[in-house]
Amino acid sequence: DVQLQAFGGGLVQPGGSLRLSCAASGFTFRNYAMTWVRQAPGKVLEQVSVINSGGGSTSYADSVKGRFTISRDNAKNTLYLHMNSLKPEDTAVYYCAKASDLGSRGQGTLVTVSS
Q: Distance between CA 111 and CA 54 in Å, rounded?
């Protein structure tokens, strides 16, 4: 079974930084493009960033461009999201998923940006 577990969230002040990680298992991680998505309270799911299978191509939502960086370590079956200059509107539960199947997202991690 596909398992994707995100962790690394927490409470951070505006302007702060966090690094999220996602541990993948149950599929051949290196063969899949991966994505980070988030869901804020009362809002729809938003795709934040995508990375191709090799890690050489990335894309970002306009709302996070220039502040977030997606990366991956295929040897460790791990996906990362480095988040800088965090804003209160970044508050959400963050999930990782296969880019081709957002339903594959597993347990998310809560990021709260507040002073």
A: 27
Backbone φ, ψ for residue 108 (5° rounding) = -95, 180
Neighbouring residues of 65: CB distance < 8 A, sequence distance ≥ 6? none
Residue 80's SS3 state is: strand
pLDDT (tens place) for every residue of the chain, 115 residues total: 999 999 999 999 999 999 999 999 999 999 999 999 999 999 999 999 999 999 999 999 999 999 999 999 999 999 999 999 999 999 999 999 999 998 889 899 999 999 9
> DSSP for 48-61?
EEEE-TTSS-EEE-
Torsional sign, CA 98, 61, 17, 113: negative
d(CA 36, CA 71): 10
Residue 29 in 3-state DSSP?
Answer: helix
